[in-house]
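Quiz preparation item.
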């Protein structure tokens, strides 16, 4: 199970938006980040407080599924066009600066590494949207609103 890569299911993406289920912070963070690019074990190492039981819960509830299954095929978020005013260089500059400032040295460094891995504008935009959600989880709605406005997202 820990060597397997997982992706969010439609149900998992809906849960991220709706926050309908009472998931712990570590479980919700794990759900938010899982994208099929790493094995489950690697994600557990990156998400503070996440355990194999958290992973099993996400699988049991149908929020994630093994990568490669048609029901869990990754889909680009609908919100990607929401960042039209920022090009890849502007997003890069904002995310590398704001990550350390908003998330602290260690977590910010991890985000900067993720920014470095982005190969194109679409990937950078997707990461920017994840960054807003990460700020929301760690600092609340007001801080996420500030970051969203800085990125040109509508309120």
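Solution:
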């Amino acid at each position: 199970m820990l060597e397997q890569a997982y992706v969010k299911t439609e149900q998992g993406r809906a849960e991220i938006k709706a926050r309908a289920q009472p998931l712990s912070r570590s479980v919700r963070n794990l759900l938010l980040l899982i994208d099929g690019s790493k094995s489950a074990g690697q994600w557990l190492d990156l998400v503070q407080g996440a355990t194999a039981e958290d992973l099993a819960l996400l699988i049991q509830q149908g929020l994630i599924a093994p990568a490669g299954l048609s029901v869990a095929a990754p889909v680009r978020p609908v919100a990607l066009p929401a960042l039209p005013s920022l090009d890849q260089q502007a997003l890069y500059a904002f995310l590398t600066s704001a990550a350390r400032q908003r998330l602290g040295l260690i977590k910010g460094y991890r985000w900067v590494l993720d920014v470095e891995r982005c190969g194109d504008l679409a990937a950078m935009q997707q990461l920017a949207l994840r960054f807003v959600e990460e700020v929301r989880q760690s600092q609340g709605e007001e801080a996420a609103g500030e970051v969203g406005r800085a990125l040109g997202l509508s309120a």
